[in-house]
Amino acid sequence: MEPNKSLVQQIESFVDSSTTPAQQIASVNSIASLLKNDSITMEFLVKEMELYLTTTDPILRARGILLLAEVLGHLQQKPLDRATIHTLVGFFSERLADWRALRGALVGCLALVRRKINAGVIIRSDAKMLAQSFLENLQVQSLGLHDRKLSFELLDGLLDRYPETISALGDHVVYGVCEAIEGEKDPQCLMHVFHVVEGLAQIFPDPSGPVANFAEDFFDIIGRYFPIHYTHSEDVDISRDDLSRALMMAFSASPFFEPFAIPLLLEKLSSNLPLAKIDSLKYLSCCTVKYGPERTAKHAEAIWSSLKATLCNFPRDDISSSASDLSNGMDFEENEITEEALGLLQKVASQQNTSFLNLVLEDKDIISLVKSFTAAGSSVSVSPKSKQELCFVGRLFSVLAKASTSSCNMVFDSLFLRLLENLGVAASTSSKDVLVIESNSPCQKLNSGVLYLCIEILGACRELAVASTELPSSFNFIDDAWCQTLVGCSSSLMKALISDLVPISNEMYREIDISSLKVKGLQILATFPGDTAPVSKSLFENIVTTLISIVTNNFNVTALWKASVNALAEIGTFLNDSSYSEKSLSYMSTAVERMIVLISLDDSTMPYSLLLEALSKISASGYTYLSRIAQELQEVMSAKFTKLYVDGDVKIREELVQLLDCYSKNLWSDLLQGTESVPLRLAIDIWDQSEAAMGSNFCVEGELLDATKMALKLAVAVLSEENQLRIVAKAFEVISSNLSFSPNFVPSKLEKLQTSEDTDGFTSKDEWLISLFASVIIALRPKTQIYNIKAVFESLLMAFLKGHMTSAQALGSIFNKMPLKNENMHDSSYFYLDDALTLVLERSLGSCSDHFLSSSSEMYGSDELCPSVAVCAPPQVHCISGLAWIGKGLLMRGHEKLKDITMVFLRCLVEIEALAENRGWSDREEMCPSLAKSAADAFHVLMGDSEDCLNKTFHATARPLYKQRFFSTVMPILLSDVKKTHSPTVRSMLYRAIGHVICNTPLAAVLSEIKKLLPVLLDVISVLSEDILSKDMIYNLLLVLSGLLMYKGGQDIAVENARIIVNCLTGLVSYPHKMLVRETAIQCLVAVSGLPHTRIYPMRLQVLSALSKVLDDPKRNVRQEAVRCRQAWSSIA
Amino acid sequence: MVSGLINANPTVYEKKERRIRDHPSDPTDEYAVEPIDDLEIFDHIRDIKDPEHPYSLEELKVLTEESVELDDKRGHVRVTFTPTVEHCSMATVIGLCLRVKLMRSLPSRYKVDIRVAPGTHATEAAVNKQLNDKERVAAALENPNLVDMVDECLAPSYA
């Protein structure tokens, strides 16, 4: 029998201790697969193995049992019948007594316990037998590490799967477990131990059960582990946090641990170790919740006193840092200990009844602290220490008030009212008429400490109220006692906050804290949930009015102004998120409308930029406000444009620029979520205004034109296809009737055009219109079909030929988004991308097009266009830069014609000088370098990311990895050109182009090619470092070099080229034009010092002498790096 | 040779907050010069480790911000340090560390004077003379044991 024979072989190979572990694993696998395929049965296997399972030789027996066990481990999913399982359980549990073959028995039991439910599991009586055998036979603590781990896993599995069976064993099992786990030290075993304890505690919840009886002994064993001190070692993937969490679950598993656990935790809380403190607090939080209120109540006093000690224990160095101003620096020194402590306080406070709160509120220390604050009067100078105490008390009460309604009530009764009295606020005014400010009452100065406490408590109440509104139940916080109190005093409190809000000028600096606090208080009051109570609508309006008046009148008190604007924005956000329609309406009418009125006023006292800042902050708080504000802004914009045409006022011009910038920077991102009406109106408005202005001789240019362009682009980009079409139609209509050059394409005029290719006939009005038009085209979506595309294209092309860059960008966008086959455009069906490109190339390169395109593409019949080679004129510099944008459009979509454009650039770089000589161009000394330079810089445009066009915002089509692809095609060409050329000027321009390509390619792609590139890269850097203007490029190239030095695979290449790298870097450490270059070069040198000693030692003196000069660098950062680097290099001796 | 520490139990002080410069130069100006000042020199030497203890010279108040005097125009630096005990035989080692560190960190145009604060050391004059004698400093740096000791003190601690 075939399986039989191989089976015997496999068994023998496993049992034979001379075979390798891999062979053993293989034999287990093959036996398991035999069983899985039903080639053999379990019974058959056991029979075959009989000899090994029962032999008196302990080594063979151990191997045999282990084999059976491991095979069983592979069969967790394989159904086995009851009798088989029963027999196996009997066998393995019996074997637990066989200490020589224990491993196999443990593995087998574990495999059986973990069997999947649908594949047949151990029945209860068998589980009981197994557990009993375990408890009787195993001395876990005397076993080896791995066996101990298996034992705990077995125990854990049993508790998990058969809790009832185990609980039936009663005392016996608790004893056994205690014995087994005592003194365990291995982290992996401990994870299981803690879990076992947790499980055990859960199956004996009975107060007279075994866990309750042995709680003290039991806790004695696990309590020793607290706090866990364990430094993570590499080979074990258990962190201290895991262990600590497991222990925490064990601690909190049984309420019977309470008499022992809480005193232990409190004791450790008073220790000096921060880690112990944090752990204690975490455990306490967990335990108080699990143990329940009654058990915790016994320890309430102790918990409070420990917490107080923890919270009051201000670390000394914090004093200096928290001595900043009271309004912002008021937040407590946030560290983990205080966080945890406050969390615990809140848990206990919400769990315990009044007695705990009384404990806190009647604490002598707290009372005396509060007294000291109330007694301090209005003195503003607060020592850092008392400031910290103030923070502490503030946080304390805020946490208590937040904890629950009843605790909030108590805080109100015992403290809040007293504080209000101190502030001179009557707790229950019957009069609701808050608008009457009693002028005869002397405005007494408020005590800043008391004010702070009040506002902290108020803020906590607000949070409580907000939380209660989020509950699904109909529970209403308004009926709570604290809320009733607050209703009584809210108006007078507000009065107190409003009075004297604006500091008198000479006391400004001292009063700033109090003012900011007051603003915060007002904000809290205004954002209380509920339409009427506890803060009524009139109160709310009053608050908003006050804040608005600060914003509009007191803009010279910067801190207060900012606080007020932020408060207004917060109030807006709150109202926007909730559904308090009345307050929302009144916010709209009091805040938004009043601000809007100001913007249309021409001579408001408020600076325009501040006004816009305030408006944009408010508009960010909700779409309703935004659309209202944006609408008004547009009206103002139109009005200002109109005014500008009439009198051309400089002030209005500046204001318009600010207005448009505000639109582009602040409003636009919010507009994305809303409807299109606002951007549509803006775009139409701009065109209407432009059209209207055509009659006058007014012109938009410079800063204002840039701002208009940006705003228009962003607005159009947001629109849908139909609306974009509307804008294009409108725009085209305006430009076609107003441009001074004709957009009508007549092929026969071509040559005439070329001859008049100067800026004649390109007025600034043309520039204005065509810029706006190009901006519209740039921002179009790919699906937007331009109907009269040919005419549009023609006008842009003409502007581009006259040197208008925005038009070139627009053409690039068209090329980027143009459909390859425009089937549904019958009226201009011949106008494909290829034709358009041909047209552009011919027109832009003029009579040289044949030369530039001849070998790269055969399809141009250029003879007709350029009959005589002799008259060939050089292409214009701006045409090359413009072609770069068109090339970018093609590159991004991955179009093959990019090749042609790239060839143009390459020829400009390489052959221009020779060409100029041949053709006898007159001014070649000036022109050639600038042409070559613009061709080199074209690579920057091609590869770089632009904010102006062809990006995600303006819906550019981008093929994935287009940069990498271009890099890998163009780089070899550039490199071979560098090799071929002999002229230094050509080489330097090629280097410039290479530099641009490398800078803009993702680092990973460059690094994968770095072996070939490195020498060139270093040459590029050294050539470019003679030019001031390329300092940014040098920095970017240096970053590539530093990427190489940091990159793991790059070390070998760096080692090979260490000499030239060091030469390059020692040159750059004194690069005069950019500090970052020097700093980075020095950092690279530090990295080089980590290379193998033998390679770098010869360069040591060179580096040190270069660095000794850098020690006298004008910049401090560079000097510091130099010292560090010198230390690194001098220590490699 | 005396075994055991000279000052077995020194007082350790807290590090002071680093002083902030009054007139930070404009970071956007590439060519603005930030001159070397006494604070910067102090930054070079504050973290030198004491030869006997794992504390920095600043923590032991061997050096304070006031210990560095700088005359930038004449290229003159004077560092005055205070040994923890009067008979401290480590004073010369500390001085040597200071000298080596400043030699490595300052441009060569500066002349550095190192001295023990007046009245804080038993053999003040001898120590001062030794520390400012070029030949003796050079000779000391020929001694491998001393160089090891100095390098240990200067090793960056990253604390």
UniProtKB/TrEMBL annotation, chain A:
Keyword match Protein transport: no
Keywords in alphabetical order: DNA damage, DNA repair, Nucleus, Repeat
Domain of life: Eukaryota
A single cellular component GO annotation: cytosolic [4Fe-4S] assembly targeting complex
Domain MMS19 N-terminal: 46-311
Keyword Repeat: yes
Family under the similarity heading: Belongs to the MET18/MMS19 family.
Record protein name field: MMS19 nucleotide excision repair protein
Lineage summary: Eukaryota, Viridiplantae, Streptophyta, Embryophyta, Tracheophyta
Encoding gene per record: LOC110775861
TrEMBL record, chain B:
All copies of domain MIP18 family-like, residue ranges: 40-110
Homology family: Belongs to the MIP18 family.
PANTHER family the record matches: CYTOSOLIC IRON-SULFUR ASSEMBLY COMPONENT 2B, CYTOSOLIC IRON-SULFUR ASSEMBLY COMPONENT 2B-RELATED
Lineage, uppermost ranks: Eukaryota, Viridiplantae, Streptophyta, Embryophyta, Tracheophyta
Presence of keyword Lipid metabolism: no
Name of the protein in its database record: Protein AE7
BP GO annotations: chromosome segregation; protein maturation
UniProt key word Acyltransferase: no
Alphabetical keyword list: Chromosome partition
Species of the source: Spinacia oleracea (Spinach)
InterPro entries assigned: FSCA_dom_sf (IPR034904), MIP18 (IPR039796), MIP18-like (IPR002744)
Gene3D superfamilies: 6.10.250.1280, Fe-S cluster assembly (FSCA) (3.30.300.130)
Lineage top rank: taxon: Eukaryota
